[in-house]
Automatic annotation (TrEMBL):
Keywords tagged on the record: Hydrolase
Stored PANTHER family: HYDROLASE ALPHA/BETA FOLD FAMILY, PIMELOYL-[ACYL-CARRIER PROTEIN] METHYL ESTER ESTERASE
Species in which this protein is naturally found: Streptomyces yunnanensis
Domain AB hydrolase-1: 28-262
Gene3D superfamilies registered for this protein in UniProt: alpha/beta hydrolase (3.40.50.1820)
Superkingdom of the organism of origin: Bacteria
The protein's name in its UniProt record: Alpha/beta hydrolase
Single GO MF descriptor: hydrolase activity
Amino acid sequence: MRDWQLSRTFASRSGKVSWEALGDPSAPPVVLLHGTPFSSYVWRAVARSLAQRFRVFVWDMPGYGSSEKHEGQDVSLGAQGRIFRDLLDHWDLAEPLVVAHDFGGAVALRAHLLHDARYRRLVLVDPVALAPWGSPFFRLVGDHSEVFAQLPPALHRALVQEYIASASHPGLHPATSDRLVAPWLGEQGQPAFYRQIAQADQRFTDEIQDRYGEIALPVLVCWGEDDTWIPVARSRELASSIPGATLRLIPGAGHLVQEDAPAELTAAVLDFLTVSG
């Protein structure tokens, strides 16, 4: 795990947040948001590439990755949106560039529309943004999270491993799979995995979906053409609901675009973030 470590912390309203900043402190700031059940680790290749031209901020949401996990923790989209706004204040970022994946997309959208977080440009990568969402598996686990949390550790590991693997179209390298599964293991990780699913609620995107037409900043929607978690048709629906949004499809990539096509995603993001104006 030494290949990706977050050395700094922030005391959020839902527990300790681990974060890191890469690149020249004087460069334009970019913030990367991960989704579920992932962590900032999925951004490692993109972050290191962007850090050649930007100051890149990465963080693990409370309840995820190397950030704090504990019983009774609020890890809902409602909490994460407020925490993200708090982090922007902590980092003293008035109007950063923002790139957000999956649930991170909902977090960034809620922070912008409900908590007055301002961005210079926004990239949404296969975001959770439109109803209905949640696979049959996701809903089953959410409805019976306390039962699933009691699975024997070996069965739990197998379940998480298969679930995460399904986010990739070409398949994950075993070492990458192990790294993504690791935060969800053990006495803290196993209950945290089911906790975040139990608290996932479509009402958090229902509250903002009708307001996407209010977004008045440049937006790029990126989507893996082979995403089996959120159908690619949603990309067109979302892009059409945001005034002036640009749509970029990534061939050969599933939901976990950062792992499936990091070079193609980085190129698309760089093209968009470096446009003047």
